[in-house]
Specification:
The structure holds two protein chains of two kinds. By secondary structure, chain A is mainly α. Chain A contains three helices and no strands. Chain A is about 75% helix and about 0% strand. The longest helix of chain A is centred in the middle third of the chain and has 69 residues. Classes of the chains: A mainly alpha, B mainly alpha.
Chain lengths: ~140, ~190
């Protein structure tokens, strides 16, 4: 076999290193461009998510505010009435009307009624509860339900 | 040496590089990379040329290796000598290029040696290692170069080529037989 190990190193063309430097320059430019584009895309995506998020947070809340308000008022009155009333008051005619409104509300929610209809029912419930609370506070009063 | 003392001069990938140059290279200093190229450009190119047999393919490999080096040097921890690390990168890049060119499969290696054995080889007018190796198929030449010149074991070759050790041994044995036959043919002609 020939003695391969006597082979000397071979020099590449003198233009190779300048070509490598130029290729490195192109590589870095490409990376910076990619970073800029992906960075811009990320910023745009975050901005779009923020806009979407604020729209779903602000939009429906502002629309449902009146309904939420009347519902909260009604629930507050119900708690107050339950605290004041004794068991016998559950038999009162006001309680039957309250149950009637509750059933109507349940049916309205079941068929996805619009917020105006729901608000009207919650308002009716609130009114009944206000009278029930008044009667519980002053059982001898003349408040009628 | 002129004063008569023996001094071992490192060549090729066995050369060492100053730690300060490596530190600058890790910071992306292009002058430091130019100094690394001055030391290792020739051995890189020589190994790639021996493996691929083409100057343009060898230059492509050196370019790829140095571009990779410019990113990878930050992760070089000095567990192995820098030259050995670079040599492995060069061998891997050259083998990748052989694979891309469709000359790295097991079937191709065996089939190319079969075809070579069946054909008549024109006698060379001059016997030299380069012209002998050029007569081998690409993968067989790469295995001979890495095993005989660069000291790769069959285990390492198997990992490099994604084949078994017995495959590497078989290709090497057949390639060396082929080279010996070429030398005999050339001597008698």
């Amino acid at each position: 076999m020939p003695r391969f190990t006597t082979w000397p190193d071979v020099s590449p063309d003198d233009s190779l290193w300048p070509r490598i430097v130029a290729a490195r320059g192109r590589q870095l430019t490409k990376r910076r461009r990619y970073k800029f584009i992906s960075g811009s895309a990320a910023v745009a995506a975050v901005a779009m998510i923020a806009i979407w998020w604020s729209s779903i947070q602000v939009g429906p809340l502002s629309e449902s505010d009146p309904l939420a308000s009347v519902r909260e008022q009604s629930q507050e009155l119900e708690r107050e009435w339950q605290a004041l009333a004794d068991t016998s008051s559950l038999q009162a005619s006001g309680f039957a009307r309250l149950q009637g409104v509750d059933h109507a509300l349940q049916r309205a929610y079941d068929r996805n009624a619009d917020s105006d209809e729901l608000a009207a029912l919650w308002a009716q419930r609130t009114l009944i509860l206000q009278r029930l609370v008044s009667r519980a506070r002053d059982p001898e009063g003349v408040a009628t339900i | 040496m002129a004063d008569g003392t023996a001094q071992r001069v490192s060549t090729g990938f066995a050369q060492t590089i100053d730690a300060a140059i490596l530190a600058r290279a890790r910071r992306g200093d292009m002058v430091a990379f130019a100094e690394i190229y001055t030391v290792y450009g020739r051995p890189c190119y020589t190994l790639a040329l021996r493996l691929l047999g083409s100057t343009s393919a060898a230059e492509d490999v050196v370019q790829d290796v140095f571009l990779k080096l410019m990113d990878a040097v930050r992760g070089f921890r000095g567990d192995a000598p820098f030259g050995a690390w670079l040599k492995r990168m060069t061998a891997n890049a050259a083998i990748d290029q052989l694979r891309k060119a469709g000359r790295g499969s097991a079937e191709e290696g065996e089939a190319a040696l079969d075809a070579l054995a069946a054909s008549e080889t024109a006698p060379a007018t001059a016997i030299d290692a380069w012209s002998l190796l050029q007569r081998l198929p690409a993968q067989a030449r790469a295995i001979v170069v890495l095993h005989q010149f660069e000291g790769y074991s069959h285990k390492e070759l198997a990992a490099l080529f994604g084949q078994t050790e017995s495959y590497s041994k078989s290709i090497l044995s057949r390639a060396l037989q082929r080279l010996q036959k070429s030398v005999r043919d050339d001597s008698t002609s």
